[in-house]
Structure formats: C-alpha cells, structure tokens
Amino acid sequence: MEGLLHPVSIGNLKLDGNVFLAPIAGYTDKIFRSICLRHGADLAYTEMVSSEGVARDSEKTVMLMERGEGERNLAVQLFMPDADTAKRSITGVMAYNPAMIDINAGCPVPKVVKTGAGSALLKDPKTIREIVSVLVENTNVPVTIKIRTGWDVEGINYLETAQAAFDGGASAVCMHARTRSQLYMPTADWSRLKDLKLHFPEKVIIGSGDLFCAQDGARMLEETGIDAIMFARGAIGNPFVFEQAKAMMQGKQPHEPTIQEKKEAIIEHLHGLVGFLGENAACREMRKHVCAYLKGIPNSAKVRQAATTALTVKAYEEALDLLQLT
User: Fold this and answer.
1) Stretch 276-298: mean pLDDT, rounded?
2) Which residues constitute the domain of residue 274?
3) Catalytic residue at 291?
C-alpha cells in the first residue's frame, strides 16, 4: 500500500497529506478538530455552518467558525439553498480567514433538506454551479463541494453534479458514496468513487463513506484511485485513526493506542471543552464523546455510566480512574 500517502493541492491550498477529518454536525468543533490535527489529520472541516445564520450574524452560527489551537488551515463548510444566500454570507465567512470553503450538498437530514440545502441541491445541478460560481468570484480561497451519488437510486447523477461544480470553478469534489435516500445504510458503493475519478482524472476527488478504521482508509485509496479520504464516524472517539491510516498507507504497522493514551485523549478533550464552553456545559457535551472513546475497552460499562453523569472535571477524572481497576 506504499505510495498512497502523498501531498495534495486544492486550488492554492497545499497540504502535506491526503487524510482529512469530515465535517460532522455536533462533533467537529474547534476542540475536536485540534485534537485530530495533532493526531495526523491534514485538514479538518468545521461543523456545517448556515450561510443564512452567518448573513444574520447569529452568535451560535459564527462561533462554529472559530479557529482551533494549531489550526493553520481553517476549512469552513457552508450549507445554503441558493447563490443569493451564499453571497450574503461571504463577508461574515471571510472575517474568519478560512483557507477553504466547502459547500454541503450531501446532508440528508430532513430539517436541512426541506430548506432546499444539503442533499436537496443534488436535484438541481444548475443551482450548484451558481453557488460555486458566486463563492469563487467573490473570494480568494478554494471552493469545494461535498455531494452524494444522487437523491435516490433512480436519481443517481453524481457525474452531472460534479461537472456542475467544476464548471462553477470548484477546486475539488468530495463524494459520500451513497444516495440521500440511503442515509448511512447499506454499504457505501466505492465503485462510484472510482468512476468519478475516471471521469475527472485531472481533478481532485475526495472519498467518504464507511471509513471506520485505518485499513478502510488505505483500501479506499487503493481500490478507487481517488486523491484523498475523509474520516467521519470512524474518527469519533478515535482521533488516532489519522496517524494509523497514514502508517498503513506507508506500509507500516499502525500503533494501537493504550488505555492510558485513550484516557489522556479524553482528559485533553474535556479540558479543551471547558475552556470553550465552561465546566458544566463541557461535561454534558463530553458525554457522547466519552462513550465513543471507551468503545471496545473491556469492562468499561461502569466507567461510561459514571462519566456520563459527571458534571465536573474532577468527577470525570475519578470515573476514568476506574479503568485502572477493571
């Protein structure tokens, strides 16, 4: 598998490697992005940010674009229904000095789709081209897009939507290899990624879907010939997956984190959230993360139970100390 890890250029953004953290609503805040970057992610995307919210200067919206510690390249993902909404958000987005803007044309969640954003854009390649064009023409950063293979099995049109994005000036297309109607089941069809790259051999194509471990990442690159990969659910509770995937891509044996290393990552994550949200809110926010970090650790049920009721950092640390007794 050697040779799969390599630098990649997305417009004028030059990255040392090709292993990314996907935008994940409710997870990829600036704290988690920083942790993943330290563990080998070459680029980390914000949670999806409402262009309408940015245009209205919503505090809860714009805080999603705050740069994390050590985050040299800020990749902001926006969702919007049309080019006008995208244009109205440009000043607010550029105030955060992003290195790249990504358009969400893949989110399948009904509350996003019903506004005409996310996966709804897959039904309208013309609007995709218009959105990309207005962002390209009015900013000086690369504009990319994340799509799915189509709305449903009868409406598979990823070649058309990718062409529309490239016609608008997109620097890269990322594809989650499922339709909107499939959500996250059944298995992602990676053959579609291979086909997309074959149709656009000179363009940057990024792959997403069913990347749960280092082996998956290396295999996707090897089987499809795409340029980069994007871990989503596979990175939740496992920021180590980036360095592991890179090791495999270089033909090396990946390091399996010890229980102590996982504990340290949890505490680092929690302390970061405390500085961002305050102790009480951070402890509540950390509950979903800690369950993911502890997944697969034998006899960790009591630890999860104690951690997910903890409301102070001290209580979290005491809960994690139980791991030494199991």
Assistant:
1) 91
2) 259-325
3) no
